[in-house]
Amino acid sequence: MSFATFYMKLLRRLLFLLAIVVAAASCDDKPEPRLHFVGDSLVEFWDVASICPSLHFVNHGRAGAGIAYLGEFGSTLAGEDVVLLLGTNDLWQMLAYSPEEYAARYIDAVKSLGVATLYLYPVLPRDFTGDPEGSQEAIKSFNDEIRRRLDDFGCRVEYMDVYDRFRLGDAHLPNPELYPDGLHVNVYGYQILSDALWKRIF
Asked: Which of 72, 81, 92, 181 is deepest in the core (most CB within 10 A)?
């Protein structure tokens, strides 16, 4: 092998390695993908970091939040991927409207965010002190209507179909093994929520 041929091969190898380094550097400059968790206290107290420490996320959970909370985001979540667990605090409005009417209000509020991908949870079963009669039926009817209208959200929707895993029996009451108070879930409940999500994103 002549010196010229040797140096040409060496130069090609060096250029190849340089291209790899440049490509790696450009990847490092890209913003890290992240998930925005939006919802009420069920989201606020979701310890995502301990369950999946490698996930880059922002937790926007706020205790007491209902769908009116979505209006506070404006366009800040446009084009982002959002995990949404919201609606239990709107129980009284679910009872005041028909499932179709309230689902339409819910969908319009979510569409206004302009998200890229929506990881959508149903409203979970509840049996909290002071809940009015018909609460469980209203939640189920609302969830059924939302599932029927997933194409109306105007974005890619991944529906986390976990409702049945949280209920006990045909009356749609919450499973006491997953709830300390009939409203908030315990660590076992959060594991169910997390498992459903990780199966969709990893």
From this structure: 81
User: How does pLDDT run across 152-175, given as a tens digit for each residue?
Assistant: 999 999 999 999 999 997 778 999
Residue 22 identity: V
Is pTM, for the whole model, over 0.85? no
Residue that the structure tokens 């199966």 belong to = 199
Identify the segments of the chain with pLDDT beneath 50.
Answer: 3, 6-7, 9-11, 14-32
| Radius of gyration of the chain, Cα coordinates, nearest whole angstrom | 23
Location of structure tokens 């059924």: 144
140-168 burial, b for 16+ CB within 10 Å, e for fewer?
bbbbebbeeeeeebebebbbbebbeebbe
Q: Report the alpha-carbon distance of residue 87 to residue 122 in Å, rounded.
A: 8
